[in-house]
Amino acid sequence: MRKDEMFDTKKKKVALDVTNLKNFVYDMDHCIKCKGCYWVEHTYMPGVQFSVRCPSNYWNDFDAYGAFGKMRIGLGINDGKLEWTDKLLEIIYADPLCGACDVGCKRNLDLEIGLTLEALRIKAVQDGAGPMPAHKKVAKNIAAKHNQFGSPHENRRKWATKDVKIADKADTVYFVGCSASYVNPEIAKATAKVLNACGKKFMLLPDEWCCGNTLYSVGMIDEARELAKRNIEAVKKTGAKTLVVSCAEGYRMWKADYPKLLNIATADLGFEIVHLIEVADEALKKGALKLTKPVDCRLTYHDSCGVSRLCDPWTPWSGERGWMGMVSPPLKRRRGTTGLYAQSRNILSAIPGAKFVEMPRTRENAFCCGAGRGAKEAFPDLASVSANHRLEEVKSVSAEALVSACPWCKSNFGQAVKENGDNIQVMDIAEIISASL
Amino acid sequence: MSIQKQAYNALESAVGAKYFSDDPAICEGYRSGPGGYESGLGYERVMTTIPSAVVMPKTTEEVQKVVKICNRYKVPYVPYSTGFYGPRSHCHVENELLIDLKRLNSFEIDEKHFSINVGSGVIYSPIQQEAMNKGAYVIIGGGGAQASAIANLIGDGWSPLSHRIGLPHRRILGTELVLPDGELVKMGSLADGADPFWGDGPGPDLRGLLRGFTGLRGCLGIVTKMAIKTLPFQPEPLVPTGIAPNTALALPPKRVKWVNYQMPNKAAQVKAMFEIGKAEIAAAVTKVPLFWRAIAKAECKEEFWEIWGKETEESIKNFFIVRVLLVGYTSEEQMQYDENVLNDIMTELGGIARPTKPSDESWIKNADSAGMWLMCGSYVSVDYIIESLSQATQHGESYADLKRKYTPPLMPDNGDPGWFQSFELGHQGYSEFLVYWDQDEDTTGVDHFYLETAKMNIKERFYTSLLGPHQPLYLTGPMYGPNYHEWLLKVKNAFDPLWVCHPPTPLAHDDFVDRAKWMKPLKDWESPKKLPMPKW
Known about the structure:
The structure holds two protein chains of two kinds. By secondary structure, chain A is of the alpha/beta class. Chain A has 18 helices and eleven strands.
């Protein structure tokens, strides 16, 4: 007798569909409270000082704010036992959905923690309780001005000065994103210069709109889906084969969440999604990008979540769950293993004059800046606490500069440094590459 | 009825509003199950509930204040450090306060005298890293890298490294205990403020009451601080490598090495453990269940079952592995000496060295017990014993026989006799029997199996660890004493006359059997009609 024939387990239909929380009941049910989602993975555990990786549970110590608490709360919501209250909304939304819990859990278990947290927010919106007022304001801005900040749409290309070469027609589109277009134009400009230096001809979308990251992240799935369709169509119209981004949040959105929203695979988007760090790393290896100007600085790198543990490609999956919780057809789980961990490190190590040092928590164990996915808009204190905690780590390795590959990280760290009067320079990787050209 | 308002106000004042909550969502986050260690079973469904409120003290003084308030207003409470130990560390009665100890996270290391001093919220893996940074090490207990060191040491605390480092209670050098009524007791070196050196006294040593063999799950007070001995390790770094889930510590080959030996039969397997102990070599000597190898190889549960599905009763019956960890504590030469002696022993006994990865994924820093849930989704170590090597190595076989009767719902494992190893250089043997099931199946059989193991241990005269709150006290007490149950209840009544501290422990499993009707057919022992404890 085969082992599974000893049991008469009924098969249940299941899909990786975040619009229905019931798809994740198994995952919520089977959380074992090991707290691998909260602590840095034991192999890489640096010691007592920087031992955690969950910004939400670092901000508020009650178990409810860790993924293990949210799994139990999620079951309560699914069963209709918990009513939506301000506290419950805080628990669900005071979280940058950075994916640390998801990769932590998937080291040992096969639970879809990240998707469950997304499904909980979608459920909050479906029930008329979410999102938070600050998110509604962002949604209003996007609807009216096509950007998250409510800035005039016509200012989107203001960063594009004459000293950067932008083609009218190219195989590559640079999708700038709201933050680099309006708040951090220096990143957009530096990105363009680096692409120029790599010999990568690029164009811009004729009329770029917000990627919809915040909308998707807070559970406003219908609005996010409309933007996804519109933006994908806009890229397809250009005939480009590659879309390059300089924003980690945008990278994750295009690469994983657009396909998720449209129930297609990343490979079926019709064009490739790359981040600037992939372009620069490849150009560096081929000798097309030459970093010659010394940058006299001791620097460290912050792995932005969207280019690390959250960016594995998406493949739709639906099937059945049966004996011992096994699923069929086979499911290749997203564990954050294809994150862009090496590229930035290769680049930073190649900058002449610079001394690159690692922080205690790196790659899939990195501590998020706390700004992403609607967290800073609704819970600025969480974003501030997270950034300050990470900056303590920067100081612990005596770094003079903190480099990341995401404008949201730069803004959040930059604000914290300014408020504290810290002597740390916060830079995007595009800027430091550009400075070394 | 919830906790009365006066108690609520007093508790909030004791710790500050930020660290006290009775919000339903906050309390729901402290639910025991349905997943987790020993969860998804009858005990968890019948005996646990969510707290009525949660409090998070920061200091021993705050813990004392909270406990005194609980006594004043008759509020039952449960101490909680990381919550990993399943239903038995969660609220059992209505209107109960959960005292979350994670903010007691003080840590000091005394490099010169080889000891650490930790609070209840400090877990193992950072302790091990801090120790290794100073040329020392501790054991990461089987409870896992993410378990509270204090909770683990007053419960279990052993691992394969116990071959050399010994049993956990020998490493407790000082304890600070808030008694169930809020009074503070300091034991061992923490009592006289000396450098941590002496775990016993002054006066009567209460560690036995606190810890016993595998602990009383917090029903005799709250340990807020502990001084723990560390031991000298070798100086080379163990380098973390890989991206999760494929991470490991790369071992310095001349100082740390795992070697797996395939032995010709069980007798040679046990003899090898004896001989290694007699020669006083090695850091760990262990035999693990074969399916752990499948867990290590598999990326997901489907792959595990594909690998494990190929094994048969025959292949398990003929699997005689001895896994040895060599450490050059003092020098490369010492490591070479150990390896030469080991090779001589194995040559004599017919052991064949198998290729072994030059890395550690499981024991030095990890105790990766979360992997135990991969295959089925549910798990508990149903028993562990410390006996002589010759007895311990027989223990698992009797379990395997009993287990057949309850498979399904237990995981089909081809009669694997579990895990055993050498402790204290072969002077003791350790056996642990782990069972796995899917909590979505009918788990009545697992509840029955759990209780039947106590009866089997009594019958076969194994000194089981899971007494007290782990099994019905009126079943095990008369058989292991003959009045262990009376003694334990006297201790409980003396220290906690109100039974505010984690009720109804240590009568929790008796209560479960009384309340769960599917357990009734198994009850063939005497117990009072009404259990001798206050009703909450």
